[in-house]
What we know:
Layout: E1 6-11, H1 19-30, E2 36-40, H2 44-48, E3 52-54, E4 79-81, E5 88-90, H3 92-103, E6 108-113, H4 115-124, E7 132-135, H5 151-172, E8 174-180, H6 187-196, E9 200-202, H7 210-222, E10 228-233, E11 247-252, E12 258-260, H8 263-273, E13 279-284, H9 296-314, E14 320-325, E15 328-333, H10 334-339, H11 347-355
Parallel strand pairs: 1-2, 1-6, 6-7, 7-14, 8-10, 8-13, 9-10
Antiparallel strand pairs: 2-3, 4-5, 11-12, 14-15
Amino acid sequence: MGSVKRIGVLTGGGDSPGINAALRAIVRRAKPLGLDVVGFRDGWRGAVEDDLVPLGLPDVGGILHVGGTILGTSRTNPFQKDPATGAWTPTAKVDRILDTLKRRQVDALIPIGGDDTLGVAHRLASHGVRAVGIPQTIDNDIGGTDYAIGFHSALAVVTDALDRLHTTAHAHHRVLIVEVMGRDAGWIAILGGLAGGADVILSPEQPFSVGEVREALQRRLDAGRRFSIIVVAEGARPVELGSVPLAAEGRVDAFGHPQLGGIGYWLASELEKAGLPLTPRVTVLSYLQRGGVATPTDRLIATRFGVAAVEFAAAGKYDVMVALHGPRVVAVPLGEALAGCPKPVGPEYLDLARNLGVR
């Protein structure tokens, strides 16, 4: 391919507040550089099925604060995993993507998504596809970047929920269990729990036992605290289940991930069996964490990422991901970023929780 004249953009995986801010920034930065932008609908499905729409300034007007993604999303995977070797091998969908890009004269791609979406982009590099990835996931578990688009907005939702639930927990003398997202890393659970004043935080980084949780709650009771708030990530790992997360039987997505969920209700049942004198109740925040408007922080991160992605593409930097390193936006090799997935919560926050007496 020669110089870049047309950029294709797609949004894959779970949606996050801030995606539309990134799309807006991409189009607004591309315009003065003389670059056309087209969007593929529903993630990699749109690239496979040649389903695209032109993106001009009128198309991205008024979307800065809007949640979700105007392009739609999906978990379409153009590769399949070899069960014997664990390697991702191309399918006929890859040939269709290459044909679409050639016929539509798309010189570079900007995929916006998590490790699955960006992993496809990295594998397509060996087929000649030039891509600059933008990290987007409320789980914040992508390596190579301090933060991904969507995390701060999800964190705000969890913190607000805990603020609201504290009054009911206190009034009714109950243990309220709040189940949040976080398959492989507990960024939402740990930082949300700390910001919202949770008494027990359970995340994938540290397996837990029901006995440990029961003891923590009893200590609060003995100290005269007649209520407690527990935040548990969907991927938390109880030792009673072999330190593996609770999964819905038989539900696996196109990237081989089992659907998780139910740990909150499981924990409530086990605490009742353990003779907990307080009544446990469960709130599952689920898709509420993804919804609504993006916070100012997410809008700014997304805007910076969108602008940087266009500039990296125009400069010929490919097979990279835009990343936030402190105050700077930089390009990191996609392979390096993906090798750091899932990115666990660092010891600074785990130590902070322990120093505050939070399990």
